[in-house]
Write a structure and sequence with these properties.
Blueprint lengths: L1 H17 L4 H18 L3 H21 L7 H5 L2 H7 L4 H30 L4 H29 L5 H22 L8 H28 L1
């Protein structure tokens, strides 16, 4: 099954690159980092304290942008039905989409976070924590994005509904992710890893169930 999974992952990454969906989240993420200092002022202490949390909020919102193209186009053109006929389980389809979504979305966002962190005055020590935190947390955001996309496929205003559904589920990731850049992070990184792992493991099964419900 792993040999059959790779082409689906490669397809998701190719669609993100060729369709221009890769750059919109990154541009959005960088734009927030550029605009935030203008909103709160040039106080370096305020930027240092609040900047990490703002980057995590920006990462979550950036994850929402490609949500409508993750499931709905494949449902409308019959691609999901073709995969089912060829013997793919809904969980494997969901897993491929989650991995493909993360490959197209996660690493570019992590690279962009280096420049974003510099723009909002984060120190060298915090930049490393932001990079590590996003590497740990973005798989969970990708899993949540695919799951919510499957749940809302075909609904009017799916992006808005998806945002409302995603935000509460992503709160643990935001809390622990932002805490990693606080003056006293404690065990925030470990808690972020635990929350991200749990969500990443659960997401293929939840998204798979949502895909099955689309056919009923």
């Amino acid at each position: 099954m792993s040999k059959k999974l790779y082409p689906l992952i490669e397809r998701e990454v190719r669609i993100a690159w060729n369709g221009g969906n890769l750059w919109m989240p990154i541009i959005f993420f960088i734009s927030i980092a550029i605009l935030y200092p203008f909103a709160v002022g040039p106080d370096a202490k305020i930027l240092a304290i609040t900047g990490g949390g703002v980057l995590w909020i920006a990462a979550l919102l950036a994850a929402l942008l490609p949500m409508e193209r993750l499931i709905l186009p494949d449902r409308e053109n019959g691609f999901l039905d073709q995969l089912t006929v060829r013997g793919y389980s809904d969980e494997w389809i969901a897993l491929a989409k989650i991995i493909g979504h993360w490959c197209a979305f996660g690493p570019p966002l992590v690279i962009a976070s280096i420049f974003a962190a510099i723009l909002i005055g984060q120190g060298d020590d915090k930049i490393g924590l932001i990079i590590m935190g996003l590497l740990i947390g973005t798989p969970a955001l990708a899993g949540l994005g695919v799951t919510i996309s499957a749940l809302t496929a075909g609904l009017n205003g799916a992006a808005a509904i998806g945002g409302l559904l995603l935000l509460p589920l992503a709160i643990p990731i935001l809390i622990f992710g932002a805490a990693t850049t606080s003056p006293d992070p404690g065990s925030a990184l470990q808690l972020l890893a635990a929350a991200s792992l749990a969500m990443t493991v659960i997401s293929p099964f939840a998204a798979g169930a949502a895909l099955r419900a689309l056919r009923e």
